[in-house]
Amino acid sequence: MTAPVSRELSGGTVIWLFVSIELLTFALFFIGFAAARRSDPALFLAGQEQLHTLSGAINTAVLLCGGWLAARGVLANRSNEARMTARCFAGAAVTGLIFMAIKLHEYTDVFDAGISLSTNSFWFFYLFVTGLHFLHVLAGVGFLVPTAWRAAQGAYGPDNSSPVEAVAVFWHLVDLIWIFLFPLIYLAR
Amino acid sequence: MTTRSDHRRDARLLFATWMFLLALTAGSIWIADVDSASDTATAAVVLGIAALKAHLIAGVFMEMLLAPRAWAITMSVFLVSLAGLLVAFYLV
């Protein structure tokens, strides 16, 4: 990637401090999940068998598409391609909406089965951690849409790229968290 | 502003990274599906693949490859440590 001549943080230091705190927080949840699973592997295996791996896989692919679009949008902004930037960010927002729709469908199945946060430790971690991640996706869409709108108005460009980069970095954080969540909850047994 | 050839090269890098990420996802699902029993080695492999994917996202999409070295190294150490710790819970 070419953009900055000197070594700089994409989006600025503030967003990266936020990303660091978020990553550390989710890391603690992941470690908590793995530790709880270790104390009762059969319970966690039974819970995992009720999940739809295909939904998780599709959602992973959807988020990766969104990540690519956001990165492509940052690149377009640096080349002063306002419409392309707007389209890429709008496309990333759409992937967020698809992700949430699939996740809500999955939650509906879980709640219809009478499962709640208090059912057992597997379902507590599943609902709490994926729910928290869901809120991050929602926030990401909330950032992407106005950024796409403002990009279309020509509000950004190579000389004003930090807001675009910061939103993209947040969106990639959402992706990064899911990259660990998916194997941990759906695949690793 | 980037030059035209820089732009094309960067766009190709982003596309290749995206494709590789999708391939790694498919690979980890396939590995988990082949050994569908409670296989701790499978858990280690899929979590290892997750660490590799996280490095690609951080390095290329989040541009950690262009970040100050201290940030890039810290991120890399964090991702490897997290994956290692998670794998340890499955293996030990």
Quick structural overview:
The complex is a heterodimer of chains A (189) and B (92). Chain A is an all-alpha fold and 189 residues long. Chain A has a single domain, classed as Up-down Bundle (Four Helix Bundle (Hemerythrin (Met), subunit A)).
Continuous helix count of chain A = 6
Give the total of domains of chain A: 1
Classify the helix fraction of chain A into a percent range. over 70%
> How many domain modules of chain B?
1
Average pLDDT reading of chain B: 91
Low-confidence runs of chain B: none
Structural class of chain B: mainly alpha
Query: For this entry, what is the oligomeric state of its chains?
Result: heterodimer
Describe the secondary-structure layout.
The complex is a heterodimer of chains A (189) and B (92).
Chain A: H1 13-39, H2 41-49, H3 53-78, H4 82-112, H5 121-152, H6 162-187
Helix pairs in contact in A: 1-2, 1-5, 1-6, 3-4, 3-6, 4-5, 5-6
Chain B: H1 4-34, H2 40-61, H3 69-91
Helix pairs in contact in B: 1-2, 2-3
Descriptive keywords:
heterodimer, A: 189 residues, mainly alpha, Four Helix Bundle (Hemerythrin (Met), subunit A), B: 92 residues
Structure description:
- The complex is a heterodimer of chains A (189) and B (92).
- In chain A, 80% of the residues lie in helices and 0% in strands.
- Chain A has 189 residues and is an all-alpha fold.
- In chain A, helix 5 (121-152) packs antiparallel against helix 6 (162-187).
- The longest helix of chain A has 32 residues, at 121-152.
- The radius of gyration of chain A is 18 Å and the shape is elongated.
- Chain B has one domain (4-91).
- Helix content of chain B is 83%, strand content 0%.
- The termini of chain B are far apart.
- Chain B is an all-alpha fold and 92 residues long.
- In chain B, helix 1 packs antiparallel against helix 2 (40-61) and helix 2 (40-61) runs antiparallel to helix 3.
- The chains are: A mainly alpha (189), B mainly alpha (92).
- Chains A and B meet through helix 1, helix 3 and helix 6 of A and helix 1, helix 2 and helix 3 of B.
